[in-house]
Design goal:
About 25% of the residues lie in helices and about 25% in strands. Helix 4 crosses helix 10 and helix 7 packs parallel to helix 8. With about 350 residues, it is of the alpha/beta class. The structure holds zinc ion (ZN). The site of zinc ion has 7 residues, from helix 2.
Length: about 350
């Protein structure tokens, strides 16, 4: 099969385009002919190498996937060859303490497709049947590939973990990133008022189109002052911050008393200095979240399949140009999801 893979960690230049052996579906597994994948920050981290995580090389990256079922392993009953599907990227054992109570993203042996096993930057992908979800005929493969990771992450963070309610004010830092675009739509559909902070007019325009109520250009405006002005000095109920070091202190200060800071990442650095007085005196909650469960994804998909939410795709690349797609994302030049297409079918 044609694939993108790397044999050593490093910059986008380590990504090679070549031919690897076709994988086969084992017991309980589904073989998918991949039609599209999409880029996530995780793909950049996996390519560079993650401290403490040994990845057998060569490795095929790519955690999001859509495509057609090409074969099924023994014991697979819910799928047949030809089904149009997308893939839930989270891998969990299904029987540990956390899986049993419904928190599969806390699984003792939690993993992600494209990190802990070969991913979707290849013509063929094998995944456990629990990870496969059928998509309607009306949904394009590009859209289906742009959905899973960002929407499952946003849904778990805002709804399952963050318990966002109608009438609340929510600030989303770095709102034009993939997860942010999902957060804006989920927050709007939940009845919240959405404040979107991003770093360019083009990014803010996308936030506005997705439903954001108040736009903040953090290169031109002071985020904290604007939040205070727009909320009559009260602050927001919820702030989403996966930007990390650059925005963490501001995020804490934008919250009203008893507010919740939700985090699912730290793209600018993971070690900000925190003034703990902000947390205990104002009784804030800091809530962590990472990826999500099949149920989190199914909840988001229900609204997506009904046409009430959609992924925003910024650019589409052919598989051969995956390294260019990585460069574009690394330079933060992309507005919307980057989709990598395999074959001509949409
Ligand atoms: Zn488990």
């Amino acid at each position: 099969m044609r694939a993108i893979y790397f044999e050593k960690h490093g910059g986008p230049e380590v990504l090679e385009f070549g031919v690897l052996d076709d994988p086969c579906a084992g017991r309980g597994e589904v073989l998918i002919e991949v039609k599209a994948t999409s880029l996530n920050h995780l793909d950049l981290f996996v390519r560079r190498g993650l401290p403490g995580i040994e990845i057998p090389l060569p490795h095929v990256p790519g955690c999001d996937a859509s495509g057609v079922v090409a074969d099924i392993g023994v014991g697979v009953t819910d799928f047949v060859v030809g089904d149009r599907v997308l893939v839930n990227p989270s891998l969990a054992c299904g029987w540990c303490e956390y899986c049993i109570r419904g928190d599969a993203s806390l699984c003792r042996s939690f993993g992600v497709i494209g990190e802990h096993r070969w991913g979707a930057c290849a013509e063929r992908l094998v995944v456990p049947q629990e990870n496969v979800i059928k998509i309607p005929d009306t949904m394009s493969y590009d859209d289906a590939a742009a959905v899973p990771m960002v929407f499952v992450t946003a849904w778990r963070m805002l709804i399952t973990r963050g318990e966002l309610r109608a009438s609340e004010d929510i600030l989303i830092m770095g709102a034009a990133a993939g997860v942010g675009m999902a957060c804006i739509q989920i927050a709007k559909i939940s009845g919240a008022r959405v404040f979107a902070a991003a770093g360019s007019a083009e990014k803010l325009e996308l936030c506005r189109r997705l439903g954001a109520d108040v736009l903040i250009d953090y290169r031109q405006e002071d985020v904290l002052q604007k939040i205070r002005r727009e909320t009559s000095g009260r602050g927001v109920d919820v702030c989403v911050d996966y930007v990390g070091k650059d925005t963490w202190i501001t995020s804490l200060r934008t919250l009203t008393k008893g507010g919740r800071l939700l985090t699912c990442g730290a793209t600018t650095g993971y070690d900000p200095q925190t003034d703990l007085r902000h947390i205990f005196y104002r009784q804030l909650k800091v809530i962590g979240s990472t990826t999500g469960t099949r149920n989190d994804l199914l909840a988001a998909l229900k609204l997506i399949f009904a046409g009430k939410m959609k992924p925003a795709i910024g650019q589409v690349f052919d598989l051969e140009r995956t390294a260019d797609a990585h460069r574009l994302m690394e330079a933060r030049k992309v507005v919307g999801k980057v989709v990598i297409r395999l074959g001509d079918e949409r």
